[in-house]
Write a structure and sequence with these properties.
Order of helices and strands: HHHHHHHHH
Number of helices: 9
Distance between the termini: 54 Å
Shape: globular
Structural class: mainly alpha
Number of domains: 2
Number of strands: 0
Length: about 180
């Protein structure tokens, strides 16, 4: 690995960690450069701007959807495993946290929504049969994430337990059984 690749990779990794966990508006280029141990001017060299760096973090954000088949049962098991394995440390990057922290941002929210639509929602709509079912499925998952990670609702079982997995499966199954009108 060359120094250029190492510096670029460090910036990208730290940008992903900070943008996705704290939100775009709450992170400066100095924060990212400091965490990467490099000069902030290198962001411009490698990514052009703060927004260019954020866009680079989105490049492979939804690559996991390529592993999905057209089977809704496989989708449920895949998502259960994704949630069970999700980082619980607030600084570790996760796609769910990235969406929750950035989709509403005035500067980059539209870009996040565009990438979600293109890379995730279209794939889910193909698997589930239509956009409405895909939207309800994602809404259920994001709601579960908010209940667990933000609201810390006591009725949500501890991650990794059979009860947690059962709760998550139940929510997804209800979303999949809904009949769009």
């Amino acid at each position: 690995m060359t120094t250029t690749e190492t510096t670029r990779d460090k910036l990208l990794a730290e940008a992903r960690r900070l943008f996705w966990s704290r939100g775009y508006a709450n992170v400066s280029l100095r924060d990212i450069a400091g965490a990467a141990g490099v000069d902030a001017a290198l962001v411009s060299r490698y990514f052009g701007s703060k927004q260019g760096l954020f866009d680079a973090t989105l490049a492979d954000a939804f690559d996991f959807t390529d592993m999905l088949t057209g089977d809704p049962a496989q989708l449920i098991e895949f998502v259960v495993q994704l949630y069970v394995d999700a980082p619980r440390n607030t600084e570790d990057p996760s796609v769910v946290r990235m969406m929750l922290m950035n989709a509403h941002d005035d500067e980059i929210g539209e870009r996040v929504r565009e990438v979600v639509q293109k890379k995730m929602m279209s794939r889910l709509a193909n698997i589930l049969g239509d956009e409405t079912r895909a939207a309800l499925f994602v809404a259920a998952l994001l709601g579960f994430a908010v209940a667990e990670k933000s609201l810390h609702l006591s009725g949500i079982a501890a991650p990794g337990t059979p009860e947690y997995e059962s709760q998550l499966r139940s929510i997804m199954q209800v979303a999949l059984e809904s009949k769009p009108r």
